Task: structure prediction
Amino acid sequence: MKNVLVTGGAGFIGSNFVRYLLNTDPKIQVVNLDVLSYAGSLENLRNLSDPERHIFVQGDICDRPFVEALFRQYSIDTVVHFAAETHVDRSILGPAQFIQTNVVGTYTLLDVARTLWLNEKLLGDQPVHFHHVSTDEVFGTLRPEDPPFSEVTPYQPNSPYSASKASSDHLVRAYYHTYGLPVTITNCSNNYGPYQFPEKLVPLMILNAIEGKSLPIYGDGQQIRDWLFVEDHCEAIWRVVTKGKLGETYNVGGNNQPPNLEIVHQICTILDELKPDSPYRPHNQLLKYVTDRPGHDRRYAMNIDKIQAELGWSPKETLATGLLKTVGWYVENKEWVEAIHKQSDYQTWIDKNYATRDKGRG
Ligand code: NAD
Ligand code: DAU
Result:
């Protein structure tokens, strides 16, 4: 058995990754460490394919004694680190928790791994691996004429979120170069798919449109993201963990770069077809321009040549197929939506983030 510690495995990508791992390799036991913040939920972990190989532990990655005990109890040999504060708008309104979780939390995990794996030789000579899941936002923003971000693009984070992720990436790199901790890093673009908390663009637009609420477009809606279906991201991460070169970083992206406005229109068109009896058709009548995000990055795009050439990974879903699956999933999973609305701070957050934005153009 391989004993894989997945941090943040009750969140969006983490829970998809837990499913992916259980389906991919019967010789893996998953220990899922998650604090169950507003963004994490056991609702995301229902109906796993092989629940005996999944151990859920509620706890904080910043709690060193707790993390150390977990490494010992389950003889952890691999860490795939997702746990983080992840919403840019929340980082603008309250950066402190981002520094704590993303910087101090990542440091704590790295230092426990170093102490137990390298100093104490907890697992003897058995291979060990620490994989850090990061973001394209560490590279900052692109002008229209700039080439996509590559693995050697300098870091220029622009939000408290991206600055905290950049700091965590630097710590991971330092633990490789200074102590020889066997690490890899992936920097990935915007994910979408099932189980995404509805504060992020895609699920927020789907659920608001279903309920006939306005669809808040920040600024002019011409900002560009590089969209990747979440299962493609999970496959890329596992490819890097199993085949990647230690000490290396790999860019992961979807080769889909529409402006925000276009992605929202696509969601509306899919809903028009899936819900022909909706009183809100055509759903794009709900679009509303609102005040922009401060420091809003204009354009992201990922050059994924390295992971394609070295590890043979490419995204399988196009934006059209991935969005159809995603919108269909939110339409069909009303119970999940209701549970998430009830158990999180969802409405408080919506009131806080959108109340002062409501003076837009449309
Ligand atoms: P998410 O917000 O949906 O989930 C984060 C999870 O981490 C939650 O389950 C939460 O409870 C848990 N968590 C938070 N603080 C914790 C702590 N102190 N201890 C233990 N668990 C804690 O996030 P996501 O969108 O799934 O992102 C996962 C990772 O992938 C993050 O590191 C993020 O930076 C990175 N990433 C996300 C995207 C994206 O588009 N969503 C793209 C690239 C990279
Ligand atoms: O690029 C990877 C990053 O993608 C991840 O590292 C982050 O964790 C993840 O949250 C995401 O960040 P973004 O800020 O790009 O995602 P978000 O869904 O918040 O916004 C996507 C775009 O849509 C962005 O340009 C802002 C815009 N937007 C967002 C919301 C929530 C709107 O126009 N209206 C909205 O209501």
User: Anything to note?
Assistant: The two ends are 56 Å apart (CA to CA). DSSP finds twelve helices and eleven strands in the chain.
